[in-house]
Amino acid sequence: MHITVDGNIHVCEKIQPSNSLGNVNSGGVDYVRLVDLVHEYSKSSLPECGSCWLLRMCSACYRDFLDDHVWSADSSERQAGCQAMRAYALRRL
């Protein structure tokens, strides 16, 4: 978790400012938002990532697949990004 100077709580320092999960000065973590975020990510990524040979070495990040501050609904865009990461990793191996 990352806390900005104004108290906003984020999953990490690389996530856009508009994706706050609450504020330490006004109630702390919004657990409903946090659960929704994890559910959204898990529902969309686990079926694809779970069977990928690069799973344990993957450098993909949640922020790589955000579209206008929400998880990208475009599966083809994510698949293209994943394919590029697999090709890069294969070359490096």
Instruction: Summarize the main sheet.
Output: 2 strands, antiparallel
Query: Order of strands side by side in the largest beta sheet?
Result: 1-2
**Gyration radius from CA atoms, angstroms:** 15 Å
Strand content: 5-15%
List segments where confidence is low: pLDDT < 50 over at least 5 consecutive residues. none
Number of strands: 6
Order of helices and strands: EEEEHEEH
Structural class, judged by helices and strands? alpha+beta
Q: Distance N terminus to C terminus?
A: 32 Å
Estimate percent helicity: 25-40%
Overall 3D geometry? elongated
Q: What is the mean predicted local confidence, pLDDT?
A: 83
- The helix tally amounts to 2
Q: What key attributes describe this structure?
A:
93 residues; 6 strands; alpha+beta; two-stranded antiparallel sheet; 2 helices; single chain
Give an overview in words.
The chain is elongated, with a radius of gyration of 15 Å. The relative contact order is 0.13. The strands form three sheets. The chain has a two-stranded antiparallel sheet with strand order 1-2. Strands 3-4 form a two-stranded antiparallel sheet. The chain is built from two helices and six strands. It is α+β, with helices and mostly antiparallel strands and 93 residues long. It is 40% helix and 13% strand. The longest helix is centred in the middle third of the chain and has 19 residues, at 31-49. The chain has helices at residues 31-49, 75-92; strands spanning 2-3, 9-10, 22-23, 28-29, 66-67, 70-71. The N and C termini lie far apart (32 Å). The mean pLDDT is 83.
